Amino acid sequence: MSVIYEPKGRALEYSLLACNLFTGCPHGCEYCYAPGSLHMTKEKFKTDVKPRKDILERIKKDAVKLQGTDKRVLLCFTCDPYPPEAIEQGVTRKVIVILRDNRIPFQVLTKGGIRAVRDFDLYGANDAFATTLTYLQDDGRTLDAEPGAALPSDRIEAIRQAHERGIETWVSLEPVLDPDESIAIIAVTYNFVDLYKIGRLNHIANDTDWRAFGYAAVEMCEKLGKRYYVKNDLAACMKGIKFHSTDTRKVY
Fold it and tell me: Is the full-model pTM beyond 0.85?
């Protein structure tokens, strides 16, 4: 069975191909959908983190079939590519080498922060580095929502370093836990972020005015001359508001 797969639903908006390298994630984010979708308890998902069985050999087989594709492979959706185990065992670095050797473009989406920087030497012109940002400050809100993830300042520093190395960068503004914070994130990071993928908060009841948020986020990006992609769930709330999403799931 292939481990590089075609995502479905909301995930497909982020990437046309993806690969999940680990069985769990130590970040323990309160909003994470993965434990439920994988039929695991949150505790087991957070503590039983290990590389998927035979992951390197399976990726090698898939990579041969995908050689030269123009579709970027996203690492990862149901886990993070940079838990401490990724560094200890070198799994993620080895996976990136396999993708690179087979001319397969990739995009890394991580809340591992500086742990990911050691692999920046492997990125080529068609690859991208991304992080999810929900809050700006290293305060109690972040610790409550994402207790095991790298702090916002750490993630921001990682994406800044990626930009300095000439790596394409993007930020996932999803989930949006505080609309004002998401707008502030754009204002603070735009000098070293190439694109913002803007969504909303799903699965959790809230009274946010998503139309107003979507308008403000798009207005901020356009004012700053930044590319953006508005996810379908948010776009459905923005009827009558003109915007132009940029799709970077392929390389051209």
Answer: yes
